């Protein structure tokens, strides 16, 4: 159960990371990166960020690139939220594949 503070910080980080990924996606033509959710740990030191990538075939490639540039992304995030947060959380990225899962269920139900 997340506290209200965790939820507020999660929404703030989701908004700011979305802006950062909007600029980051320009390097990858034809790829859409969406920040689906951000879950912050109870001590606010770790943020688990779920990314949705379209087309989903490029998900592992994008995730690899994002993980390699985690320090740069954290620095950019720190510049954006430095007046709201004292400590910028560590960023842990995951691929959110729920849309692929839903498509697969729809295909199975149509058969």
Structural write-up:
- With 111 residues, this protein is α+β, with helices and mostly antiparallel strands.
- It has one domain (4-110): GMP Synthetase, Chain A, domain 3 (2-Layer Sandwich), CATH 3.30.300.20.
- The protein is built from four helices and three strands.
- The protein has a three-stranded mixed beta sheet.
- β1 (32-40) and β2 (46-54) form a beta hairpin.
- α1 packs across α3.
- It is globular, with a radius of gyration of 15 Å.
- The model has no long low-confidence stretch (mean pLDDT 89).
Brief synopsis:
α1 crosses α3. Helices cover 50% and strands 22% of the residues. It is globular.
User: Main beta sheet, described?
Assistant: 3 strands, mixed
Number of separate domains: 1
Provide the residue-averaged pLDDT: 89
Shape: globular
- Determine the fraction of residues in helical runs and give it as a percent range: 40-55%
- In the CATH scheme, what's the topology name? GMP Synthetase, Chain A, domain 3
Computed CA radius of gyration, to the nearest angstrom: 15 Å
C-alpha termini separation = 38 Å
Strand order of the largest sheet: 1-2-3
List the helices and strands and how they pair.
Blueprint: H1 4-24, E1 32-40, E2 46-54, H2 59-68, H3 70-81, E3 90-95, H4 98-110
Helix pairs in contact: 1-3
Overview features:
about 110 residues, about 20% strand, 3-stranded mixed β-sheet, 4 helices, alpha+beta, GMP Synthetase, Chain A, domain 3
